[in-house]
Amino acid sequence: MSTEESASRGDSIPRGAAVLEFISNAWPWLFFLFLLTVFEMWGRVGFGQSFVTNPFVLKSIAVAASFALLLAAGQTLVIISGGIDLSLAFTMGLAAVVTAFGMNMASPHVGPILSFFFGASLALMVSFIPGFINGFLVAHLHVPAFIATLGFFGINRSAAFIFAGGVDEPIADRTVVSVIGYYEVFGVVPLLVVVTAVAVLGVHYVLSQTRYGQYTYAIGGSMEAASRAGVNVRRHIWSLYVFASLLAGLAGVLHATRFGSGRADSGEPLLLSAVAAVVVGGASLFGGRGTIIGALIGTLIIATIPSGLSFLRVNPFFQFGVEGVIIIVSVLIYMSRDRFNWGGGRGQT
Amino acid sequence: MKKTFAAFALAAGAALFQPAGGAVAQDSFSVTLIPGLTTDAFYITMRKGAEAAAEKMGVDFSFQGAPNFNPTEQIPVLEAVIAQGPDAILIAPTDKTQLIEPLRQAVNAGILVLTVDTFIDDGSYQDGSGAGDFPLSLISSDNVLGGRMAGRALCDAIGGSGKVFVSNVNPGISTTDQREEGFKLEMAASCPGAEVLDTQFNENDSAIAATQLQAVLAREPDLAGVFGANLFSAIGTADGVRAAGKSGEIPVATFDAPQRIVEDLKSGLVNIAIAQHPAEIGWFGVAAAVAALSGQSVPTAIGTGFTIMTPENIDDPAVAAFVYSD
C-alpha cells in the first residue's frame, strides 16, 4: 500500500525508512522472541528448568491470553474506527455472572447440559445490550466514545454485582462446566483456546478480507471521506460496538465455564491490558490503523510477562514497570516510522 | 529453643525424600507464598513473617502474586508457580470457587497446598466433604475471637451499659460475618447491661456508613457505641459521629491496623482497633508447610491472634509492632 510506495520513493533517507519499516512491522514478533529467549535462558541457567517447553506454562499462558485476546480483538475494531470501548471489562464480567445465573436458574428444570447452553446464550444476549446502546450513543448522538463507554463501564459493573448479589455467583452444579472448561482437544489444546481462535480468526477475516473491514479502516482514516465515498458511517460504527461487546460476552462465558463461577470483576484487570496489547500490536489510538494479528502478538507479550516473571521468581513489584517500558518503546517505534515515512499522511489523522 | 527447632527442621528436611523435588536433589524445602494481592500492607506484613520463618528454618522462600485481588490475575501466577514446582504453596485464594480447580492441579503436581487468610470452598479442609477439601490447612485469624475481643473492649469503653450496633459490609462475607457473630456472643455473655441494635449494612461504602450512623442516632439519641466490622465501616461511622458533634462521647471500635490507624486513634476518630496478626499467619504458614513436608501432621485450621489498640497503648512498642508495615 502507500507505506511501501513512500518507503521506496522516499528521497532523503530511503535506507533508514526501509529499515524502520521492517523493524516497526516485525518489532512485536522480534520482541516476543526476545522475551521467550530471555525467559528460557534465565530458567535454564538460574533454575535448571525450561520455560518454553513446559506444557503447563504454555497452556496457562494460552488460556489467560484467550480472555484478553477476545477483549483485544473487539477493542481493535473499535480503535481502528477511532473510538475506544472502556465498558468491555464489565461486559465480560456481566456475561460471566449471567452465565452462572442462567445456569443456576435453568439447571433444576432442564438438567446441567441444557442449562449450560441456556446460560451461555442468555449471557451473549445480555452482552448485546451495552454494545447496542454504546454504538447508538457514539454513532448517532456523537457522544465521545470515551465518555459513553465509561458510562457503561459503571452500568455494567452495577448490573454484574447486582445479579451476582456480591462479586461472585458460583455455578451450583459444576459437572458440565468442569468438563467443558478443562477439556483439551487432542489432549493438548484447551477447548476454550480453540473457541477463542475460531472467533478471532473470524474477526481477522472480516477485517482483512471483506468490504466491511475496508470500511472500518476508511472510517478511522477520515469519517468525512468515508461518508462521501458512500459508507453508511453511523450504522457501521454502531455495528462495531455491538461486535466488540459480543466478543467480550464470549470471554465472560468462557471465564465462568473454566473457573466454575461467574465473577463480576473477571474482566477488570484485562481492560487496560487489552488496550496495551492493541497498541503494542501496532494500532493507533487515533484510528485508521491496527490489525488482529497485531492484537494477538500484543496480547501474547502482555500475557507472557507475569507468567515468566513468576516462573523466574522475580520480585512481583517489577511487573508493572516491565509492562510500562514495553508499551512506551512500542509507541516510540511506531511514531518514528510515521515521522520518517512522510510528512503528513496515514496515522496522523 | 529456637535453634533446636531449626536444627530439627533442617535434619528432618535432609533426612526425608523430597516429594516434589523429582530427580534433582535439594538441600532445603522450597515454599512459595501467593498473597491475595501484592500491594496491600496486610499481605506485605504477612510476607515479612513468612520470610522470617523461612530464614529460621532454612526454607527456600519466594513471594509471587498479582497487584489486584482478582482470580483472573492470580490464576496465571499460580500456574506459573506450579510449573516452577516448589514443595509447598501457601496461597490466599481470591475466590472460593474459581481457585478450586487450579489448586487441584498443584496437588496433582505433587505440591502441598495450604491456604492463608482466605480459603476455598467452605474453608473446612480434610473432612471428606466438598470439592475444595484437599488443602492441608487454613492459617487465618480467628474472626469470631476477634469479634469477641472487640465486644469486650467496646463494653469496657461504654461502661458496661447502653445501646450499640454493628456497622457491617454486606451479609454473606465469611470474615465479617464471623466478626459480627463473635461481637454479639461476647455482648450477650459478658455485657448484660448493653443492648445490641440491628446491624447496618453499608456495602463497604464509608459515606453510607456515616449516613446510617446519623439515622440510628436520630432514632436512638442515647446511642453508646459502635463496632465497625472493617476499616471502611469504622471510618464512615466515625465520620458520622464527628458530624453529629459526638466525638469522644460515642466510642467506635474497628478492625485492622494499617499505618493510618495510629493517627486515627490519636486524633480520636476511632477509639479501639483490633489488629490482626498477618506476620503470624505468614510465620505459621511456613512452619505448617515445613511440618507437613517433614512428614508431620498439621492441624487443618490454625487460628492466629489479635492485638487491641487504643490511644493509650498505641505508643507502646509492643503494641505498635502490630501496625501493618508498608
Q: What are the key terms here?
A:
heterodimer, A: 349 residues, mainly alpha, two-stranded antiparallel ribbon, 13 helices, globular, disordered C terminus, B: 326 residues, alpha/beta, Rossmann fold, 2 domains, 13 strands
Quick description:
The complex is a heterodimer of chains A (349) and B (326). Chain A has 349 residues and is mainly alpha-helical.
What does this structure look like?
The complex is a heterodimer of chains A (349) and B (326). Chain A is mainly α and 349 residues long. Chain A has one domain (2-341). Helix content of chain A is 76%, strand content 3%. Chain A has 13 helices and 4 strands. Chain A has helices at residues 2-9, 14-47, 55-80, 88-139, 145-164, 175-182, 191-209, 211-221, 223-228, 233-259, 270-280, 292-311, 318-341, and strands at 168-170, 184-185, 189-190, 261-263. Chain A has a two-stranded antiparallel sheet with strand order 1-4. In chain A, strands 2-3 form a two-stranded antiparallel ribbon. In chain A, a hairpin with a 3-residue loop joins strand 2 (184-185) and strand 3 (189-190). Chain A is globular, with a radius of gyration of 21 Å. Chain B is an alpha/beta fold and 326 residues long. Chain B has 2 domains: 2-141 and 277-305, 3-Layer(aba) Sandwich (Rossmann fold), CATH 3.40.50; 143-276 and 310-320, Rossmann fold (3-Layer(aba) Sandwich), CATH 3.40.50. Chain B is 43% helix and 18% strand. Chain B has 11 helices and 13 strands. Chain B has helices at residues 2-15, 41-57, 71-84, 100-108, 143-157, 174-190, 206-219, 231-243, 260-266, 278-293, 317-320, and strands at residues 30-34, 60-63, 88-91, 112-116, 138-141, 161-168, 193-196, 200-201, 223-228, 252-255, 272-276, 301-304, 306-309. In chain B, strands 6, 7, 8, 9, 10, 11 and 13 form a 7-stranded mixed beta sheet that branches. A 6-stranded parallel beta sheet of chain B has the order 2-1-3-4-5-12, with helices on both faces. In chain B, strand 9, helix 8 (231-243) and strand 10 (252-255) form a beta-alpha-beta unit. Chain B is elongated. Chain B starts with a helix and ends in a 6-residue tail after the last helix. Classes of the chains: A mainly alpha (349), B alpha/beta (326). Chains A and B meet through helix 3, helix 6 and helix 12 of A and helix 3 and helix 4 of B.
